Amino acid sequence: MGEWLDFERQVGALAKSAAEARAAGAPEEAARLVERADRQLHDLYSRLTPWQRTQVARHPQRPHFRHYAQALFSELELLGGDRLFGDDMAILGGLARFEGRAVVVMGHAKGEDTQSRLRHNFGMARPEGYRKAVRLLKMADRFGLPVIALVDTAGAFPGIDAEERGQAEAIARSTEASLALGVPMVSVILGEGGSGGAVALAAANKVLMLENAIYSVISPEGCASILWRDGNSRSADAADAMKITAADLLRLDVIDRIVYEPVGGAHRNHDEMFGRVRSAIAAELDMLNGLDPEALRTQRRNRFLGLGRAGFA
After folding, report:
1. pTM
2. Could you list the residue range(s) of the whole structural domain that residue 278 is in?
3. Using CA atoms in the order 80, 81, 87, 91, what is the torsion angle rounded to 10 degrees?
């Protein structure tokens, strides 16, 4: 049944009762309860608030980079290190094949359990992670390989060691390298797209976003702590005001396409989610395939210079 979020408790209670009825040898009652739970889940997810979507985006069972890498790419060869300091495990990337074509793939790795989350620093990269991304982007440009970036981070790591090694400069260089690419680049916001740590891998020709992902300059908790000195009880208010959902960002032209999730979120059906992401990426790459390097740079430049204009004219 998986882990239920706070706002899903009633659905979770019905699912638990259905399991108990099934174990007690009452299949008809179990089926009735399952049908009722499915109806409630569908109704609930048809009207999620921005704060509820934030919770779904952070669900511990939501698929992350490793899951998508295994499902979408073949012959994946991860490349380590930035050739300057070290190998940051919060950003992974390398060479692979996607639908038969050679590509460079990169993304934030959050980890799936306590040990792996610590190893990947919860997807919050240090400067060497973004310099690794720059290295991969330059390699893609040199060999004419499309770039696929899978974004899922609460933000770049804010620790003193990261600042000492030039965190802001590294993020800026990664963004600059993305904008200068002469090959197609497609980015997908899988869960959290937080601040410059996300933009560094999302300055792409096409930015896709999962239905229940979030994308913003700061987390709702961070925004609430700044505006109201209350990062707990006012987080939902901040999420409402910030326009962090896929629907809002599509209307504002910050993203190009919403990839819709199975009812109940991507964590409820990994395989279906992988298929939808695969189809969306393939469609965008096909549309970009005929553009020459200068056209790709111009399209990317115009796209980002135009951010913030839609919806306010």
Report:
1. 0.92
2. 52-305
3. -60
